[in-house]
Specification:
With about 220 residues, the chain is α/β, with parallel strands linked by helices. It has two domains: about 160 residues, Ribosomal protein L4/L1 (Ribosomal Protein L4, Chain: A, 3-Layer(aba) Sandwich); about 50 residues, no CATH class. It is built from seven helices and eight strands. It is elongated, with a radius of gyration of 27 Å.
């Protein structure tokens, strides 16, 4: 698959080949949906905690006598029916983590990367190097690339000047290639990747041929 490579001034300087195994995979909605649900569930802390009537501080004495008061037959003040009492079936600390096979996680990532390439929402940059952190310079680069929507900028390695230049721009996020994930890619309209980041992504999430013609995930 051939895609154009842009300079920081927005000009097409050449075309490069990208892997069909990573950027040309048919979209599998079920796998992508499962990956999104799993990632969001695994991000939950699960620390919510409420006290039951046995854990609430207070007297266990019966509030008033059982009969001849004209009131309900009340027990103690820790009842869930009373203000300050325990909580019925309230949340307790728990783990929300979900498991997902590695092959399915890799497939989900390939699916969203392929969708970006197929929809014209992937732009490959020849390089992205800044001499100093300047938000104005990053905004100028995005304007030259005709990027006016939310964007995810992916580099091969963390670059301090790029990170600092983009962090004050709304709807712009930067990350290295080894940390890309399904939710971040889907949450941003455009995906900007340096050519080095594309190669690293292919190396991390692509496949290689083994002896005998069999394919194995890298």
């Amino acid at each position: 698959m051939q895609v154009p490579v842009y300079s920081l001034t927005g000009e097409v300087v050449k075309h490069t080949e990208i892997s069909e195994q990573v950027f040309g995979v048919p979209f599998n909605e079920a796998v992508v949906h499962q990956a999104v649900v799993r990632q969001r569930a695994n991000a939950r802390q699960g620390t919510a905690n409420t006290k039951t009537r046995s854990e609430v501080a207070g007297s266990g004495r019966k509030l008033y006598r059982q009969k001849h008061t004209g009131l309900a037959r009340a027990g103690n003040r820790k009842s869930p029916l009373r203000r300050g009492g325990g909580v019925t079936f309230g949340p307790k600390p728990r783990s929300y983590r979900q498991a997902m096979p590695k092959k399915m996680r890799r497939l989900a990532l390939r699916c969203v990367l392929s969708a970006k390439a197929r929809d014209g929402e992937l732009k490959v940059l020849e390089q992205l190097e800044l001499d100093e952190p300047r938000t104005k310079e990053m905004a100028k680069i995005l304007s030259a690339l005709e990027v006016d929507s939310s964007s995810l900028i992916v580099t091969d390695e963390p670059k301090d000047n790029v990170i600092k230049s983009a962090r004050n721009l709304t709807r712009i996020k930067t990350m290295p290639a080894n940390l890309i994930n399904v939710i971040d890619i889907l949450s941003h309209k455009m995906l900007l990747m340096t050519e080095a980041a594309v190669r690293k992504t292919e190396q991390l999430w692509g496949e290689r041929l083994l002896q005998g013609g069999k394919r194995a995930s890298v």
